[in-house]
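Instructor's aside before we start: the two examples that follow are unrelated to each other. I chose them only because their records fit on one page, so don't look for a connection. First example below.
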Amino acid sequence: MHSIQYQKTCLAGLDAMRAESAQSYPRHTHDQYGIGVMDRGVHASASDGKEVKAGPGNLIFVNPGEVHDGRASGGTSRMWRMLYFDPALMLDAQSDVLEGVERPFDFPAAVAIDPVLQGLFNALFVHATRDSEGDGTPLDAMACEAVLLQLAAHLRQRLVPSQRIAPSGQSIRRAKERIDTDPAAALTLAALADDAGVSRYQLHRNFIRELGFAPHAYILQQRIALARRLIRSGTPLADAALAAGFYDQSHLNRWFLRVFGVSPGTYALSMG
């Protein structure tokens, strides 16, 4: 069985997903924090170069920009739920917990067992996706927000300040910032290398070493992320494809489906 459903929630910047699938996902990144729970089966992935497996009841995590893939262990279908948090939403909740202190963080592991956190995840998932009992009033969002803050407080007990190593060379930093500022721009390896003051080979090699992707693959990931944000904001699919730098809508469809497991059209309907 293959079923992947995205759902708009009562909080801006929070998306929910239910999945039952044996589909494999290629190496990719998300522009959001992701927290999930495995409900059935076993999910295997290579997260930042480390092979991990998650079984029923295990929590799974992904950081923004973290390179990972995913597949069903043994080829059998697995079932899981995810909540995806825009970084601004997650960091705002963390800042609230820390009484105004802004402290970036990464999830320290891709898989964990934590009954308390699992209970908070389940409660937040129910509140965030409630569409039968809730009536869309501010009180629904307030209840969801309250659980989010509890979850953020518990996460802070588990987390340490971000240990992720930022790109060490000014060349990578400049090239990455140029791509991130406008992923849809028509960039060439020569232009990026010239702007960074290194050779094309040095830029290509350093990108792979520091970010896990070659420059062209990193640009594609950023374009997919931009397209998702545009679609979630209500931009028509064809316009979102062109604005994100894809040749046409079919080009976006192909890559969006590989990363998210659903077509852009299906995602748009779920976010409407």
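Example two begins here.
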Amino acid sequence: MLENSKAFASYSVDDAEKAKHFYSQILGLKVIQDNDMGGVLTIKIKEGISVLIYPKTNHIPSTYTVLNFPVDDIVKTVAQLKAYGAKFNRYDEKDLKTDENDICRGNGGPSIAWFTDPAGNILSIIEVDFE
């Protein structure tokens, strides 16, 4: 029924200008802002993949990961994002621990590191084997 739909993800932020700077300057993504639609941002990740980010005055940050970025070298990517100012989350819980580089390893899945956008939404980079 929806197999031919051009679905997209969306989530809110409290400040479209801060989000635009973060996604374009820190993450290096193409960002299109539509001021006719109240400052809605369209993040272009790859051909045909878009994420809609919309300003919301009563925004509440996500408590879960809203967007995942697969990478082939998580250590290098974390270091680069930190150099650009990204803030990574640290966890020291029974089932969720990050190391000195803010990377979670060995929980039965791939290595993953979580960080937040300026609105507090949780994003991740996740190491995958592209072969």
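The longest helix spans residues 16-26.
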